[in-house]
Amino acid sequence: MQLPLFPRGTPIANKEPVQRNINSQRYPIPDVPVVYLVEPNEANVQAITRDLSQGLYSPAYVNFLSSVPRPLLEDFASQIATSGASEHIAQVFDQYLNFIVAEPDLFSLGLGNDAYYKINSGKTSDEDLDAIVDKVVSGLFSVSVTMGKCLSLQNCSCSPLLLH
Amino acid sequence: MVNDIASIQKLLNLNHDPKITDDNAHEPSAHGGLISQSTPILNEDGDPIWKVLVFDGMGRDVISSVLRVNDLRTWGVTIHLYDVHAASFVSSRNPHS
After folding, report:
1. CB of B40 within 8 A of CB of B48?
2. Dihedral of CA A66/A71/A72/A77: which sign?
3. Are A160 and A112 in contact (CB under 8 A)?
4. Chain B interface includes A97 (CB < 8 A)
5. Does the model's pTM come out above 0.95?
6. pLDDT by residue (tens digit) across B29-67?
7. CB-based burial of residue B48 (10 Å sphere; 0-12 exposed, 13-18 middle, 19+ buried)?
8. Using the 8-state DSSP alphabet, how is residue B95 labeled?
9. CB A21 to CB B61 under 8 A?
């Protein structure tokens, strides 16, 4: 998907935001809050803990795109506690936003271009299929929560198209 | 989807409810974007609270489909950072970095 968010060459001197690689060396920015908007997974939790234990930003507002599984939340809490970064955390929220809104009445679950193939292929492992189904369920639940309405799902001949 | 934009605005607003300044908040704004006219929270001096936004690939897709860089700046975002997935894509284009 081509996305218009990031123009090329944006020095902060021109009052434009700066893009940086999260793996590049970064320096602490004191007194500037950080807003995380990430999927709840192990790698992201570790990245957040690493940032905060190095004191890069404070305070941190952590927003997870979908609901956080309890084991991951406990893991996050224990990592933060052992790294002594707990005073940097201001909030942790589930945002139920793990879907992409393309138009006011159109959304995508962001499953990737090969979701239709994976669902219908006999070579897909049960784990992969479970992961896709979990993502669909979580995405549709997020849409429902964000809209504040109960979705009516219909199985029709065009339904596979909805998976893109 | 208006609720989606409202949720993103709220999280950029450090999860305070944005104040809606426009009566027609559900209409597209005058500059043609999907975002409604609402104001970011201010600090004690009345200035916007500047913040750093860190997101991964999915977070980028979610935000960039509804907000542009200019909109992010309106909400006080000065620096935004990719997370791991996008970073590997960027570095693969420049093997010397």
Report:
1. yes
2. positive
3. no
4. yes
5. no
6. 444 444 445 566 676 666 777 888 888 888 888 888 888
7. middle
8. T
9. no
